[in-house]
Amino acid sequence: MSRIGKQPVSVPANVKVQLVNGTIKVEGPRGKLELAYHPNMRVKYDEGKRVITVERPNDERLNRALHGLTRSLINNMVKGVVNGYEKRLKIEGIGYQAKYEKGNIVLTVGFANPISIKPPEGILVEVPDPNTIIIKGVDKQKVGQFAAEVRRVRPPEPYKGKGIRYEGEVVRMKEGKTFASGG
Question: Are 85 and 93 in contact (CB under 8 A)?
Fold first, then answer.
C-alpha cells in the first residue's frame, strides 16, 4: 500500500473544494487551482471531517504510482491556495544583476545584451535588491518551473561560482589548472 496515498489531505476551514467529472477545484484565500486527475483514481471529499481521500482500484503498478502522485498533487494545491509557494534566487558575480521592468525580469549576467524574461500568469516576481529574485505563486509546479527557467539563463559555474543559483544551493567549486615550473 502507498504510504503517501493512504494519508488523507486535511482541508482548512477557509478553503472550498469541488469535485466535478474527474476534476478537483480548490479555492482559498490566495487563489484557485484546478486538477484533472487520472480516471483510475477515486477522489472523495468528506465535508463533515474536511478531508480529501484518494483510493485506487487495485495494486497494478500504474495505479500504485498514480495513488501517491494524485494525493501529493492535491495536497500541494491545498497548501498553495492557503500559504502559497516561494523560490528565492541569488545572483553572484561582479556586474551581474537583475531588475524588474514593465512586468519582466531583466537579467544582466555577462552577455552582450540584457536578457528579459516574462513571468507566466499567476506568478509574482519581486526583486528587492539587484542580487535577489523572489518568485511567488499558488501553483508549486509553475513556481518551480519559472525559477528553473530563470536559473537556466546563467547557471553557476564551478570555477568562480558566478551565475544564478537557488538560495541555499551549494555549488561545488573546482580548482583551476596549476602550472608547474618545469625542468
Answer: no
Tell me, what amino acid is at 168?
Answer: G
Q: What is residue 182's predicted lDDT score, i.e. its pLDDT?
A: 56
Four-residue CA torsion sign, 4, 5, 7, 9? positive
CA 116/CA 109 separation, integer angstroms: 11
Contact predicate 144/87, CB 8 Å: yes
DSSP 3-state of 74: helix
pLDDT given at position 149: 96
Contact status, residue 143 vs residue 135, Cβ threshold 8 Å: yes
17, amino acid identity: V
Q: What are the C-alpha distances in Å from 171 to residues 73, 76, 89, 135, 146?
A: 30, 28, 13, 21, 20
C-alpha cell at 48: 463533515
CB 52 within 8 A of CB 16: no
pTM of the model: 0.88
What's the pLDDT band for 183 if we cut at 50, 70, 90? low
Q: How many Cα atoms sit within 13 Å of 160 on the Cβ side?
A: 7
* pLDDT tens-digit map of 132-176: 999 999 999 999 999 999 999 999 999 998 999 999 988 898 888
